[in-house]
Amino acid sequence: MFRLSSDAMRLAIPALSLTLLLAAVFWMQPRAVGYVGLNLLFNLAVPIALATIAQMLIMAVNDLDLSMGTFVSFVACVTATFLRDAPATGVLILAGAIGTYAALGVIIHLRNLPSIVATLGMSFVWGGLAVLLLPAPGGQAPDWVRWLMTVKPPLAPMAIVASIAIASVAHLLVMRSSLGVLIRGIGGNQRSVERAGWSIVAARASAYGLAGLFAVLAGISLVGLTTSADANIALRYTLLSIAGVILGGGEFIGGRVSPIGAVIGALTLTLAGSFLSFLRISPDWQIGAQGAILIIVLALRLMLNRLEKQEKRR
Amino acid sequence: MDEVLKAVFAVDGAKVNFGAVRALDGVTLRVMPGECVGLVGHNGAGKSTIVSVINGGLTPHEGSVASDGERLERYGINAARARGVRCVFQELSLCPNLSIVENTRIMHRDLGGFGWRKRAAKIIEKSLDTVFSGHGIDSGRAVGDLSIAERQMVEIAMAFSDAGIAPRLVILDEPTSSLDASLARQMLDHVRRFTATGGSVIFISHILHEILETSDRIVVMKDGRVVAERPAQGFDHHGLVEAMGTVARGEGGQRSREQSTAPLILSHQAKGLPFAAREGEIVGLAGLAGHGQTELLLALHAAHSGNWLPERDPLVTFVAGDRRLNGVFELWSILRNFSIASLGDLSRRGLVLANEEETKGADWKRRIEIRTPDMDNRILSLSGGNQQKVLFARALATRARVVLMDDPMRGVDVGTKQEVYAIIREEAARGRTFIWYSTETDEVRLCDRVYVFREGRIKAELAGDEVNETNIIATSFEGVAV
Hints:
heterodimer, A: mainly alpha, ABC transporter involved in vitamin B12 uptake, BtuC, B: alpha/beta, Rossmann fold, six-stranded mixed sheet, 17 helices, AAA+_ATPase (chain B), ATP binding (chain B), membrane (chain B), repeat (chain B)
């Protein structure tokens, strides 16, 4: 009999739930089928997918980033102000932010701090910086960013092409490269990685640095879609990114992550919002309903995990 | 000196202390090229510590480390690996979330560059084929999906694999514990082939006939020292067991009471022999560490306490061995740490009766002599031994009639130990039952009856005069008839 590997099983559920949700949306709103419809459904998923990949990198080393939302907001503010008016300064600021992420990873490891506390603290720092930059909503997206997010590639809309590109790059980086193996190895069994003679600090720093890089890309692409920024623009991203990783088959500990799954998870979360609007559920109830969708998918996964375990025991 | 020059690896007079515990007390060990050194010893003999010294994970506080006649001043994990020192650890040391190929990448640092997957797959498959021909393990599978035996096979093959730096000294720490007989035979055959081509092996096992058959020389350790070292032909089963035990030691403190008439209080169908405890009895759980003793204690505790809600009158209470991990509440006062298990008796309508709590705390402080001016001090202000006494008091202050103890005296000084032994005896005389897992033979000898564990099963039951070191060691190791 053909046996799915556990990695494939991990991907099957998110893929299945996305397909089901998409089918339901198309059934209710046939006009959503097509180039423009798909782009509208999914274009907000691009920044969420990038933030989810960032969160996934942190979760791969058994940590959790609670500053994702405010950090993406901060990046959005930098993009809408400095990156447009003084590109050199803007790039420098963003590079500094990525460096700060890497440094945070080092401090968390060296001082043995709980990542939740450290990143929660940082979230206030990023939030404060964002408010300093843009006390009121405003700014404007740089033209090249705007162009990038509204480009109309042939065959498939930008949102789909971008999602596939993000998933492929992240897959190469996390699942195929040596660095990715090392990062996931730390999540799986840090002691064994240490015994093989690797520097855990360097690996953690690169995981955090890469996460910073993806979060910066998330902020830039978000401004490309919204054209202007605001200090609170992406606060939801903290929870959305965690939910995206989990929906995509990732786990909080053990270094079990899947970049393709994470992107699918981000798409599912975005689609769930549209689906509920099509159902004419009032926005007041939408968050609760979104939570219900999350719980159903996770329950499904727990059930499958249990089945798998039983089979293994036999 | 000539010997040191030739040795692949030589440790000279290594001393290592963990706090008050002397883990290595001047160990000298040499491994020659093409030699398999068997290393045996009971719990706490220092086997794991010497392994850590050799693989670079631990720097001895005194003594020196040399390889190929060259004294190594700055010796660490990377230096060890560069010299071809490899290790198979007792516990799983692969990343379960990664595939076998990816684990190979982690183990061999200089395997990187484009196309490393192909190279890694080739290396590990070649090694698996050499050690366990006909293994049928696909190197693309995740380690977490493998059976325990398969994992161990992969770990062994990983240690013998060659990715640039050939393995020269392979340390095998209980490598056959999850392998069946034919796989173990394959591995031992490979060890012989490996040493025939000039490689060296340090072999640790609780299965004595494996050690006797495979090793060229056997080193016996006890209490952080090498107590015997001879060519393997110079030993037989009984000789090894005798060398591991103490030759002569006072029999003081041993209990000899007739208990068989007291009513049964607890029984459990464990793996191997059935387990039972009588009222007022001190039952010991012995054997090498990690062979199922803690699992039995946890099973007993789970079977006699509520799943969701606490029971009103629990039969059992637990004294944890790893204080830091699951014993003390580090931020709480001594009093709070003491009273947490009996709060049900100390409260009325959901409120804690502060006066009664204090009285009881003061009472126990006097009874077991917790050395502190004030029970409101933080628990961490106490020495390790006194913290352990508080944990004992916590358990004894409950009304539970059975006390489960998970090797609680680890790292406790001798004086405190004697005090606690006295308390245990006194409480047992009042009808309390103690089920005591200990890795120290001296403690096991205080018990009325002892179950010896091996490979997760109860292999022997010793009572009365049978409870002595020789019998315990003999039944802890496989291949010795009692």
